[in-house]
Design goal:
Elements lengths: L2 H7 L5 H14 L11 E3 L2 E3 L1 H4 L1 H11 L7 E4 L7 H7 L5 E5 L2 H15 L6 E4 H11 L3 E4 L11 H11 L6 E8 L4 E3 L3 E3 L3 H6 L3 E7 L2 H7 L6 E9 L1
Parallel strand pairs: 3-4, 3-6, 4-5, 6-7
Antiparallel strand pairs: 1-2, 7-11, 8-9, 10-11
Protein name: Methyltransferase domain-containing protein
InterPro entries: Methyltransf_25, SAM-dependent_MTases_sf
């Protein structure tokens, strides 16, 4: 079922509703997924849950000079693939994970318990229920991994507003990965890429510090690739 079919059956649904249902179906069917579920895969091969998010966690710590005292919000935390490492490393209670549904979070919670035990503390919940609490949490670092390029164009304003509010503390750091193209393009069933400038315009309360790769390299890659993966680093103005 594609979004148009889903919309016909659920007239008031948003694309995010379809996205959650589609992913839940994929996971229920046991299909390989690299970022969601209790079992994670890389290049079609099952990998340990702990290994799946280790590299990304290590890069965040290095790039942003994070410490255990840092208060972190994971917007779109999924099954805690990266969250596991923050929960284990940060001071108790300094991790706040949110996603569209508790179904994804609940898939990963048993894996976290297996790896670090059950005596951990973190704030977990849906964006709908927890965003106001997350604002009061006062995060120093907000990241959103493997989320932005899945957001439907009609829902981008909502997504960027959520990022803005989650990273509302003065001086907060915001990091997310997305896909860049010369002009807006849809690729695959649930993915979009936007021009570079789209990100800056969507976050007027932030200053763009850097991108990975740098913009010059990004533009070079766009000469031979329709879509390029880019990591954005913003700081609250």
């Amino acid at each position: 079922m594609d979004f148009e079919d889903y919309k016909a059956e659920h007239p008031n649904a948003k694309f995010s509703d379809y996205y959650v249902e589609k992913l839940a179906e994929v996971l229920r069917d046991g299909e390989a997924h690299g970022a969601l579920g209790k079992d994670l895969y890389r290049k079609g091969e099952l990998i340990s849950f702990e290994e799946a998010g280790q590299d990304e966690f290590d890069k965040y710590c290095k790039w942003f000079d994070l410490t255990p005292d840092t208060k972190v919000i994971d917007l779109g935390c999924g099954s805690l693939r990266v969250g596991l490492h923050f929960i284990r490393w940060l001071n108790s209670g300094n991790y706040f994970g949110m996603d569209l549904t508790m179904d994804f979070i609940d898939m990963g919670r048993p894996r976290v318990n297996e790896i670090i035990g059950t005596e951990w503390q973190a704030e977990l919940g849906t964006i709908a229920d927890k965003l106001e609490q997350a604002v009061d949490f006062g995060a120093d670092f907000v990241f959103s991994s493997n989320v932005a390029y899945h957001v439907h164009p009609d829902e981008c304003a909502t997504y960027f507003d959520q990022l803005d509010r989650a990273a509302s503390k003065p001086g907060a750091t915001l990091c997310f990965d997305t896909r860049i193209a010369k002009e807006q393009v849809r690729f695959g069933d649930r993915n979009w890429a936007f021009p570079f400038e789209f990100q800056e315009e969507a976050l007027p309360n932030f200053k763009l510090v850097r991108t990975i790769p740098a913009r010059e390299k990004m533009e070079e890659l766009l000469e031979t690739n329709e879509v390029v993966r880019v990591i954005f680093h913003f700081e609250r103005a």
